[in-house]
Design brief:
This protein is an alpha/beta fold. The chain is built from 8 helices and 14 strands. It binds guanosine-5'-triphosphate, magnesium ion and zinc ion. The site of zinc ion (ZN) has 8 residues, from helix 7. Belongs to the TRAFAC class YlqF/YawG GTPase family. RsgA subfamily.
Length: 306
Amino acid sequence: MQGLITKSTGSWYQVQTPDGQRIDCRIKGKFRMKDITTTNPVAVGDIVDFEMEPDSENGVITNLHQRKNYIIRKAINLSKQAQIIAANLDQALLVVTLASPRTSLGFIDRFLVTAEAYDIPARLIFNKLDLFSDEGLEILADYKSIYENIGYPCFEVSALDGTNIDQVQELLKDKVTLFSGHSGVGKSSLINSLLPSLDLRTHMVSEWSDKGMHTTTFAEMFELPQGGFIIDTPGIRELGVIDIEKQELGHFFPEMRERMNECRFNNCRHINEPGCAVLEALENGEIELSRYESYLSIYHGNDTRA
Ligand SMILES: Nc1nc2c(ncn2[C@@H]2O[C@H](COP(=O)(O)OP(=O)(O)OP(=O)(O)O)[C@@H](O)[C@H]2O)c(=O)[nH]1
Ligand SMILES: [Mg+2]
Ligand SMILES: [Zn+2]
């Protein structure tokens, strides 16, 4: 039998059958990926074959189908361990808040580079719009212009009062969509406002640390009545960029990618080379300094700041 992984706890996998049944399965045998060690061989979004165990309500996963794509998260710089967050995605939404908790530009950029590297279209969802002061709204406008100018669609929403939730609803139709972001930014709250029947657990952000409480502990996929699937994920504390060759890194910044053919040297690192089109664009303000700083930070391997 064939099914779709809708939840993974590490030892158990929930498999949805084509007729909508959900069966708890274990894994038999080895599912190794080339080149990387992952903590989970099978992830939400994977298509698998499974068999029912004799005299049991549970099944055993016996085969993993080829993935269209996947997104991996590396915990920290030194660790070789990586975790597949989800597989077979059409798009990834990064939920961002400017306060309670604050998402840094560096974190946004590392997420976007990761999505580019895995060839998954990314969009930014600025949540908690209801909390924004006038000053906050100005910062939001700055952030939005940085990312819209380089081609990432941005949305401003409030899961609390429902502002612009319809725009997100439209974005999701017939697609498999990953919701990602720091703990406490409102991923589960957003999914609840999109699918009110779900009633996922949410939790207040700590007043003391301004950090989320890591309420969602496992990735889980939900089917939308209008077609499509959404995947809720646990909050990401820090995001290491998975082994990208330094020479390749510029390709994952769209604004650098579109200029680097004009650099004088074809092995230009865009750091201090004469005739560098990227540095020229930086100087005349066509490339945002914060983006370039993220490039340097990832380039030099300081890529785990929260
Ligand atoms: N004011 C306001 N609060 C919100 C909004 N969205 C979510 N919250 C609150 O933010 C807190 C965290 O929300 P969650 O949905 O649990 O956040 P999460 O991203 O799922 O967090 P993890 O599961 O820990 O990764 C909760 O107290 C929510 O009520 C919003 O649009 N406005
Ligand atoms: Mg959550
Ligand atoms: Zn260059």
